[in-house]
């Protein structure tokens, strides 16, 4: 049996019901729905035969199904015991984290702090996980990972279409990220216009960048033989430019770097800047960031 429960304070003479797709739940016929049992602290419970359930709650009269008030939003789905919240659904964020870094998450929903605070994810068996409540009518949620190693890095802001998420973890909608499974696919965020990381080499690297809405790749290199600017073969609608910093004169290196990045931002808005040495790349970006905040220098 599967046990469902939900907290709701009804008016006198009302009860909570469950209606669902299966024969065990009345096949969406309210008159054949399951009337739940009231328990202390306004917790309503019901037990249903084990199966993959698609269901919804509604309020009606205790003695007779009439004057029905359905819960809003899309149908719920579970095959586990579920502790639900009226007009809300649970979302479970999971991120592969084999090295057990400290990972925090922030997001657009109220329970996630609307990007004003970060919540530390729990690590277990190479997976970082956090659960949140969101309004059941929300069709999209934005979220961002913050990784703490010797330094602190942030991922791009991701968007998830909640109505297209079909996977569940227990009683929560699952949003799963490969995250840190492949360190060379990690993406960090410098500011709203610049993300950075390793140079993409394989098709799956480009797919990961495209998923993060990063379609303009700026690869920094330092080679005497190569020209200042070259365009690599496009992957679908991704632009991959190679910028040779060897041609930048040392005495005005940072100013030229600032000018170049500003021109690229004006043209492409969002850049993914990459190099296979993140140590060197962070030095370049640190110089850029310092100069962009202090243009008089």
TrEMBL record:
GO terms under cellular component: membrane
Instruction: Please report the stretch or stretches of sequence annotated as the CBM20 domain.
Output: 1-95
What Gene Ontology molecular function terms does this protein carry?
A: starch binding
Protein species of origin: Paramecium octaurelia
InterPro entries named among the record's database cross-references: CBM20 (IPR002044)
Under which name does UniProt file this protein? CBM20 domain-containing protein
């Amino acid at each position: 049996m599967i046990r469902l429960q939900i907290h709701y304070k009804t008016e006198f003479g009302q009860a909570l019901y469950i209606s669902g797709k299966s024969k065990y739940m009345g096949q969406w016929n309210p008159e054949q729905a399951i009337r739940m049992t009231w328990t202390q602290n306004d917790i309503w419970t019901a037990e249903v035969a084990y199966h993959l359930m698609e269901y919804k709650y509604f309020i009606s009269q205790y003695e007779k199904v009439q004057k029905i008030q359905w819960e809003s939003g899309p149908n719920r789905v579970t095959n586990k015991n579920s502790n639900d919240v009226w007009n809300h659904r649970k979302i479970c964020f999971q991120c592969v984290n084999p090295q057990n870094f400290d990972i925090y998450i922030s997001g657009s929903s109220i329970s996630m702090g609307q990007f004003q605070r970060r919540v530390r994810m729990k690590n277990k068996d190479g997976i970082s996980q956090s659960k949140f409540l969101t309004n059941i009518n929300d069709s999209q949620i934005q979220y961002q990972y913050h990784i703490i190693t010797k330094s602190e890095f942030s991922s791009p802001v991701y968007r998830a279409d909640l109505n297209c998420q079909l996977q569940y973890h227990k009683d929560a909608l699952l949003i799963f990220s490969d995250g840190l499974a492949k360190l060379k696919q990690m993406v960090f965020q410098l500011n709203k216009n610049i993300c950075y990381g390793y140079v993409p080499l394989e098709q799956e690297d480009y797919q990961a960048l495209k998923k993060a809405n990063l379609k303009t790749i700026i690869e920094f290199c330092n080679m005497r033989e190569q020209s200042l600017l070259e365009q690599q073969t496009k992957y679908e609608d991704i632009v991959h430019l190679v910028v040779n910093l060897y041609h930048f004169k040392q005495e005005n290196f940072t100013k030229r770097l600032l000018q170049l990045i500003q021109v690229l931002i004006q043209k492409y808005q969002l850049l993914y800047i990459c190099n296979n040495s993140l140590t060197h790349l962070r030095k370049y970006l640190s110089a850029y960031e310092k100069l962009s905040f202090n243009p008089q220098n």
